[in-house]
Amino acid sequence: xxxxxxxxxxNVGSRVVAEALRRGHExxxxxxxxxxxxxxxxxxxxxxxxxxGVGVTRxxxxxxxxxxDVTRALLDAHAAAGVRFVMVGGAGSLRVPxxxxxxxxxxxxxxxxxxxxxxxxxxxxxxxxxxxxxADWTYxxxxxxxEPGLRTGSYRVGHDDLLVDGSGRSYVSMExxxxxxxxxxxxxxxxxxRFTVATA
Length: 200
What we know:
- The protein is of the alpha/beta class and 200 residues long.
- It contains five helices and eleven strands, in the order E-H-E-H-E-H-E-E-E-H-E-E-E-E-H-E.
- Helix 1 packs across helix 5 (174-186), helix 2 crosses helix 3 (66-81) and helix 3 (66-81) packs parallel to helix 4 (116-131).
- The chain is globular.
- 46% of the residues are buried.
- Residues 7-188 form the NAD(P)-binding domain.
């Protein structure tokens, strides 16, 4: 498959690129030096002819309000190009298991106050996906804690609730996050919906 990865220089984006290449896919790795992700016409031109685009963008501190505009631009661009789109978002949009009326972004047990705005942007991104009339999207969210780690190739899948293990930990390695993203690319199971993953 031909896959465009927008945000390829980041922690997760670089791992998605590596995982896709490992499996023999053709990857176009795009960074801010190559492309303004907030420009839908530019993105549409670049992703045209690909089988799928992956958005792994993250706003800079203090610019959390740009996440929604970038997400909308990416959705518009992929819809215009007729290309499927997988967005890697944040765990802040998930529900807290023991308080289902509360988002992870609003629960200080999971998200420190200093990154709450960033976490809330994930909920805005998901809302933008759900509201888009034309894009063929999938929204993938990690666990509360995502760090560099082992590529086990094994993970649990959930939907709208944060995945927590028996010890109260919510964790996925960046490597297993990339595995889950490329698995979804190869075997679509969550079109126009969201799923979340945790290392098994």
